[in-house]
Amino acid sequence: MASKAVYSHRDPLLKKRDDFEDILEERRKTSDLRYALRCYTPALYKGLTPCTVSDLKTMVLQSDQLLYVINQVSKETGTATDEIQLEAEAILEEMAHRLQLTTVRFFAFTLSKIFKTLFRSICVNEEGIQRLQQAIQEHPVVLLPSHRSYMDFLLVSYILYTYDLALPVIAAGMDFMGMKIVGEMLRMSGAFFIRRSFGGDKLYWAVFSEYVKTMLKNGFAPVEFFLEGTRSRTAKSLTPKLGLLNIVMDPFLKGQVFDVSLVPVSISYERILEEALYARELLGVPKPKESTSGLFKARKILSENYGSIHVYFGQPVSARSLAEGRVDRSQFNLTPRHIPSKPSEGIQDFVNDSAFRLVRSQEENMVLKPWVLLAALLLQNQAAGNKLGVLVEDLTEQAVWLRDLSRQFGAFLHWPDHVPPSRVVSSSLSLHRSLVRVSEGRVQLNSESGSGFPPAAMTPEEELLSKAVVVLSCASYRNQVLHVFIRAALLACAVHSVTGSRKQEIFNTFSFLRNMFSNEFILRPGAEVQDFEEACYLLVKSAVLQIHQQEVLVTDSGHRTLAFLTSILDPFVQGYQMVCRFLCEEATETLTENQFVPAVRKFFIKHLLTGGLKYVEVLSSDLQKNALAALLRLGAVQKLRGGADQGTLKVNTVMVNSLEDTLGGKLPTQKTLAARL
């Protein structure tokens, strides 16, 4: 049954989490063919209207909403309705899945072979599976997995087939359709293909939304899509995209279904298949086009060990409970339900708030492996200028300290306590030997990414970019723990940069930093006070701060934790500062948004080579784009629209300079108007 609880984040240690079972254990003992061909009889939605794939298309094409839009487009364009109807049929034909059990069985057999080769284990919380099984029978279900790898795409389907649950239909980008045979097989395993953007195309939007809503209302299958919209190349959660969430909420909001169960699914990889590929993309190397030949070329990964995967099916969240007291659904009685209308500001705020809550729920149930902590420590050691590396014994001591701190902060940490810490660290270093080396008892990041050229044959810039591949790959693991520390880290930075100990000033700085980095991390709009209170609670509980009515004091034992927290945020602070400096010093009057990333990368490389920058990870295009998005949102930069200046960036140098100085602690933050402490 969908949970009525809207998650409270006050004390993360109060959150009970389920145990895991390794589903590959049985696969290693029994026949994969027998597994693929076994009897498959999933329990279905009690309100299911039995229909074939063909019936589903007919229902969409004959729906009142689509027929209304076809008439509207006909009037606007002067095109005959029959022609537009044919266009709608073509769009639906290109989009629609053709779910077939025979193809699912083929994938079940093939993926079993692949998974057993690549992974030590695939661990699933069976209590979550039981909750999902009940939810599927009671209400239409929407599955919302995190998205860190191509592997996510079929992993959820593989698990549901294993547990005899209804297979989902999955929203997939159109680029997968170009994979010839594989694209069609994905379609027959439940994928439906959508364009990456279709902005003002009314007909496409109507076909797409009606198709998804028809599947949901009729209980044809659970609908699965990625709230983040695309894979995260940095392993941080991305700001949620609201298009599909708006669509699946619509039948509930308009009273066409009693409720919709939204199920966050957290997929955690001990080692990500695409780690080096992502790092290169972030450095400006174009993403390889999805193709069948590319898939076969990637077979060499089958000789590698990628550790374990943990998949956590979260508590189903009731759309009805989310909307209770927040949405007046009677507003939808004022116009016929088949007439498309833009959601009101209140509905948009509600959907946006729900999306952030769901992504945070995904984050909280991410299982963190020991390597995530080691990556954070190794990056900090490197940034401190420790060229000789860190002694294995010291790294182990630091890792145990950080393990205990993470647990105090409520991290979902998979650290085997029955194994000596030295062996846990050594096992993690061995699994990630492509990123680290151990020599003479010292650990350090590899200095190059295996480019094939000896360092002597490389230019300083090539050497830096080769090193950056390793650093960004390592940072992608460190980033997995950021959601645990981000609120406390923002508070630590505020305490560090404020002169004095007045609580109000610290809150103002906290709010400024939180606002500045809200494109970078999952920070729910309007929740500044709650986040500040949570950060205070965690740092008081872990004996880092003492907070009196109007004063915030650092304890004698709290300096180590405070230093770690400020260091974990420091690369982002320095990166944003340098983006501000670039815009004030180097940006021309004709600089466009498309030219921004290559130009700022060149500026960063120059400063890294001359020693003016210490964090190599500022070369990440993700950080650079997020910094620009923050400056656009704050009004320090404007993007011109229309005419010859389309896309040109207009920089308010006074404001950008002020933001740079404030980030560096040179200027006090202005009093926050909405402060309620």
Radius of gyration of CA atoms, rounded to a whole number: 26 Å
- By DSSP, the count of extended strands is 16
How many separate domains make up the residues?
Answer: 2
CATH topology of the largest domain: Glycerol-3-phosphate (1)-acyltransferase
| Percent of residues in β-strands | 5-15%
Task: Specify the structural class.
Answer: alpha/beta
- Please report the number of helical segments: 26
CATH class of the largest domain: Alpha Beta
- pLDDT average, as an integer? 89
In whole angstroms, the N-to-C terminal distance is 37 Å
Task: Identify low-pLDDT runs.
Answer: 1-10, 671-676
Helix content: 40-55%
Choose one word for the global shape: globular
Q: Quickly give the CATH architecture of the largest domain.
A: 3-Layer(aba) Sandwich
Sketch the major β-sheet.
9 strands, mixed
- Regarding quaternary structure, what we see is single chain
Describe the structure.
This protein has 677 residues and is an alpha/beta fold. The N terminus and C terminus are likely disordered. It starts with 20 loop residues before the first strand and ends in a 14-residue tail after the last helix. It has two domains: 312 residues, Glycerol-3-phosphate (1)-acyltransferase; 181 residues, no CATH class. The chain is globular, with a radius of gyration of 26 Å. The chain is 50% helix and 9% strand. Helix 23 packs antiparallel against helix 26. Strands 1, 2, 3, 4, 5, 6, 7, 8 and 9 form a nine-stranded mixed sheet that branches.
